[in-house]
Structures are given as structure tokens and as C-alpha cells.
Amino acid sequence: MLTYAVLGSGSSGNSYVFSDGVSSILIDQGYSVVELCRRLERFGVEYSTLKAVCVTHLHPDHAKGVGTLARKKGVDVYLNKHACEGEVVQFAKLGIPDQLVNPITPFELIEVGPFTLFCFPTSHDSCGSVGWHVRYQDEQYMVLTDTGITTEEQRSLAKSATVLFLEANYDPEMLATGPYPVYLKRRIDGQYGHLSNHQALSFLQESGFCGNHVYFIHMSDVNNDPALLEMAAHKMVNTPFTVCRKNQWYGPEREAK
């Protein structure tokens, strides 16, 4: 049986886990190892089962804990080769042992235990940014975060996903009237920024997603309001969904409590 969870989402740290109890993988690792272990324990995932970390991009909230985990645990790290080549300084700061670095290209299949994975391009202001697609037996999981625009390619992947982790970062009106400086507002709502609530919900409709669950992730605590997204989603989304608040953890085990 597969366990999956949002270990954390937002500017304080991001990480998603998939585990069959023997082998576990992470998408992103934006936490200390101590904090990561604390969050894994919430879902009964043993630290000893971690086999790999798959990185979306090198911004610290997604990758700052990758190097420490690799050095302590000896787990393989998979990331787009363009991230290694285009973000040389940021990549070097992580301190990932060379033998554990696995540069890949989008749509290149990799096997980790029972999982088959590949990454796909996203549009973000971090070189080589990607989302991830995870297959486990007959189920497909998709993590789409930190992208300013969506593509037909992504919509096609979402249509067949069993569970979708989808960015809904900001409410346009809250961003426009909020405290951020103009240059930062333009970055967030630009094509290399983040998805708004409306963009996320439109993506769901246009993709024809009909899977089991949607987790709305990477929500801003300054430029968004969970109640706004929940209200809009109830009107537009037919499948079960969870709005993931910043720095909280979510998954089927937690929701059942």
C-alpha cells in the first residue's frame, strides 16, 4: 500500500513523500533533517527507507535540505541537468557528494524501487525548473508547482493523474493591493512566477482531471486566503480537494484523524 503526503508547502519549506514502506522517495527537501524526520513520523514513514530526492528547482525553500540529507543518508539526488549547469553557484552550495548527483533530462525515465518517475519542464525564474510525475503500480501522481504558466503537455499529464499536487499561490486582488513592492508583484504574477487561484482552477477544468484528490499547494500566507480558494474550488472542482496551508502537513492519514 502506498503512503503519500504533503510534508510541507510554502515559502518556509516544501517536501512531498511517496512510500510503500520499504522504499521512499521525496520530491524536494526544504527542511533540516531533524524537521524532515519529525514530519515523516506523522505519516509512519521511516527515515531509513529514503532512497532518493527528486528536485523541482534550486530555490532554498525547495532544495536547502537536499545536500545535508544526501551526505547523512547517502540518498541519490535527481534533478534537471540544466539546473546543475545554469545555477552553478546555488548548486555548489548544496554540497551534494558527486557520486550521488544524477543529472537527467525532462521525460527521461528513472526507476527507484517500485517507482517510475520523470520530470517535465515548468516556467519559473530558476534555471531548469521542473515538475515531477510519479508512477506506482497503476496509480499516477503529479507535482506541479512554481510555474507562471501551464502547458498542454502538463494538462495531458494531469488528465491521467490519480492524485494531483497543484500550486495555487496567490489571489490576484490580494497581491495587487498587498504590501509587496511592485517588482516582486510583477515577478509573482509573471510567466516565470507562480500560479494564481484562478489559473490553478482553470488548469483543472481544462485538463479534464478526474482523479481521486487534488492538493492545492505552495499557498502564500501574504497574498492568499485559504477561505477564498476553498470557496472558489467548491464552485469549480468536482473531485475531493485539500487546501494546504503554509508549513502544515497533509495526507490521507492526517485527514482521517
Walk me through the topology:
Blueprint: E1 3-8, E2 15-19, E3 24-27, H1 33-42, E4 50-54, H2 60-63, H3 66-73, E5 76-80, H4 81-86, H5 88-94, E6 101-104, E7 110-112, E8 115-121, E9 130-136, E10 139-144, H6 152-159, E11 163-167, H7 172-177, H8 182-189, H9 197-207, E12 213-217, H10 226-236, E13 241-243, H11 252-256
Parallel strand pairs: 3-4, 4-5, 5-6, 10-11, 11-12, 12-13
Antiparallel strand pairs: 1-2, 2-3, 7-8, 8-9, 9-10
Helix pairs in contact: 6-9, 9-10
Please provide the ordered H/E string of secondary-structure elements. EEEHEHHEHHEEEEEHEHHHEHEH
Number of E strands: 13
Structural class: alpha/beta
What's the story with the biggest beta sheet? Answer: 7 strands, mixed
What strand order characterises the main sheet? 7-8-9-10-11-12-13
Determine Rg (CA atoms, Å).
17 Å
Query: Averaged pLDDT, please?
Result: 96
Question: Any idea what the shape is?
Answer: globular
Distance between the termini: 19 Å
Number of helices in the DSSP assignment: 11
